[in-house]
Design brief:
2 copies of one chain form a homodimer. Chain A is globular and about 65 Å long. Chain A starts with a strand and ends with a helix. The model of chain A has no long low-confidence stretch (mean pLDDT 96). By secondary structure, chain A is of the alpha/beta class. In chain A, helix 6 links the parallel strand 7 and strand 8. Chain A is 40% helix and 17% strand. In chain A, the strands form 3 sheets. The first copy, chain A, has a 7-stranded mixed sheet with strand order 4-10-9-8-7-5-6, with helices on both faces. In chain A, strands 1-2-3-13 form a 4-stranded mixed sheet. Chain A contains 12 helices and 15 strands. At the A-B interface, helix 1, helix 3 and helix 4 of A face helix 1, helix 3 and helix 4 of B.
Chain lengths: 399, 399
């Protein structure tokens, strides 16, 4: 019934530590964002057929943080709409190509077009979409990949492209959530990116950087997740955290690409880029800067990772720690009769009920604990989280 | 830069009469809706994975206003997302059928799937979609259609279905914006509906009632536009006015249909149905009731229509008055060298610049003046609007 900072409160006033929600990026009901929304909603809510200073200022601030060719914004209402428009842009830019490439277990949204780009059980339902294999889960920042592993990854990409070609399809776009979140929270080095980005681009596809999960500093090391991957996408999409909960999505692409699309289709979103969305999103950027939340994500992420790694020897059910910043995964092992996904589910429920700590799961079968809190998450919160994980692991041992 | 009730204000403080915007349904910055948003945004913004009383209350209030089988809601962020989900629901319910039927010049949104259901220049770009012909523009409430006209309409629907079948396609859904807004603002009698709804349903397609434009009392005679058409759709979609500008869309369908879809796809929208959306949408329903805005739409619509009809003999450039309630169209004729769409554009611009009255255009070529104000539009506003139309027609005569 109530949220503040990294905490949620139920109807009986009990406090929960929120290690699940990335939408309230700068914290639940952050006063600066709340005030910006309250002020604008009482002043004007209209659309981008009327010029408004707020959306211009936001577009300028946002594109200034992106690589130069990414200079033009289209505003929509969710990450799904952003990925859907990116798909239409890529199809338009490639002369109508219909093939799509995504990573195994990726999630890109809920419209018909992007649901097709969201493989379930690892395999896409739509024959126009093929998957690229994942990097090894144990890779961590600074790790290098062997030449053999890099060659295997490049070969996998070539094979995916051949599969499309064998079906008579040319590729329009390759999507990557740079946090590889729903694929299990992976953090491969830039050398990995080159293995698939090269072949994909040579085949004519555009690369869509889906920053819905990993953008706005979550990695702690880079403001944009694609920078951490050593990649400059052709199109970037934003969603969840961009308005701290105000429904909003953004597509950023080179001006020529957007103008060609507009000339053909006259794209317009009724709510997209309205003055309240602009005020909310601008306030999010301001808070990120003022409160140095990316630096906080790095510091807390390092502290939390060290504490989690120290748990592994004591709790054999905890297998590995993945990710960086405030996007951390802990994969679990099977325990007795319980397969790994059931272990993860037991721990999630135990942590919520006994420790009032909210987390989720990710990975192919839900075997990875997902730790993805609002950005003001500090070391004291990390301590509470680690204690809750230990308590859940202990409870599992006592079953 | 500012809006209040049926007025907008520019950066120099000049007041404009808004006869264009239907998104601020109960009026720009309505205090009751603003307060509801301000309160909730400072309390909690989360998602429907956590139960919240607000969205339950809204869903109950909304479904209570709909025919009994329409008892289950899916919440999304725009009319486009709502129509996209309705398409996925219809495909799922028909076992994967891929054919679509829409009316000529219809508009249903911007995702890839619904852009395909949005014909441009009268003809769809996607071969999986065929169009149904429009009823005669001069039909008004209470008018009857001749048996010959009804037979022709039924034959047209049969032919559209045969076209799909000849392409090897079975129909999944037929969409109707019950205001036939972008088709030119038409108001055919219920007998017309039966001519196409029967054949379409016998062919196995679901009927999607797109209430994005016409729902929530705009016709003045019925709360839902499909009631005015004598139709009970299989799925209903809401968008633009539902949150008075807060980004929101709703899909309402029978429970069994939604549950089968959920079992297969596990549909979830991050922002859809969040507590702020629920608070905004509930406040809209409350204001509609308290301020009797549907009755106002009927009264103002009747007054405005009578005044517009009285203009026709004096201004030959004005051809006909269409529609009902606060969804009124005035088709214009060519004038000298200017074809009708240029006449309409001249009048829109003249009215904005000289009279500070904002309207738009609709119809196949933009030859219909679109009068679609917020719902608190009264007879004094109608007088100002009529004076502005006369001034524009006079200016055209003096060219």
């Amino acid at each position: 019934v109530r949220g503040a900072g990294v905490h949620l409160y139920d109807v009986e006033g009990r406090e929960y530590l929120d290690v699940y929600n990335n939408v309230p990026h700068v914290g639940h009901t952050h006063p600066h964002v709340v005030a910006a929304i309250q002020r604008q909603v009482a002043t004007l809510v209209t659309h981008t057929r009327y010029l408004h200073a707020g959306i211009l200022e936001y577009a300028e601030r946002l594109t200034a943080s992106l690589p130069a060719p990414l200079d033009t914004c289209l505003f929509v209402n969710s990450g799904s709409e952003a990925n859907d428009v990116a798909w239409r842009l890529a199809r338009s830019a490639t002369g109508g190509n219909t093939g799509g490439l995504v990573f195994e277990h990726a999630y890109h949204g809920i419209t018909e077009a992007v649901a097709a780009l969201t493989p379930s059980g690892g395999r896409p339902r739509d024959p126009r979409v093929v998957t690229l294999g994942l990097p090894a889960a144990q890779l961590r920042a600074g790790d290098t990949m062997s030449d053999a592993a890099l060659r295997a990854s490049a070969r996998d990409a070539e094979q995916a492209l051949e599969t499309l070609a064998a079906r008579g399809l040319k590729p329009a776009a390759c999507y990557i959530d740079s946090g590889l979140t729903s694929s299990g929270i992976l953090d491969p080095p830039p050398a990995w990116t080159a293995t698939w980005a090269g072949p994909v681009r040579r085949a004519g596809a555009l690369i869509v950087g889906d920053e819905v999960q990993y953008g706005l500093g979550r990695s702690g090391s880079h403001f944009w997740g694609f920078e951490r991957r050593g990649l400059v996408p052709d199109i970037v999409t934003l969603g969840k955290p961009v308005g701290n909960g105000y429904p909003m999505g953004v597509v950023i692409a080179p001006r020529a690409l957007v103008e060609a699309f507009q000339a053909k289709y006259g794209f317009f979103s009724t709510f997209g880029g309205n003055p309240v969305a602009a005020a909310a999103a601008l306030a999010v950027l301001e808070v990120l800067g003022r409160e140095q939340l990316m630096a906080n994500a790095r510091a807390t992420g390092e502290y939390l990772t060290a504490r989690l790694l120290a748990l592994l020897p004591r709790h054999p059910v905890l297998e590995s720690v993945r990710g960086v910043g405030l996007m951390i995964g802990v994969s679990v092992r099977a325990h007795g009769e319980l397969p790994a996904p059931r272990v993860a589910k037991f721990m999630v429920n135990h942590m919520a009920a006994q420790s009032r700590v909210l987390i989720g799961t990710e990975g192919a079968h839900g075997e990875v604990l997902k730790l993805r809190p609002p950005m003001p998450f500090g070391s004291a919160h990390a301590d509470r989280l680690v204690a809750a994980i230990e308590a859940a692991a202990d409870a599992l041992g006592a079953l």
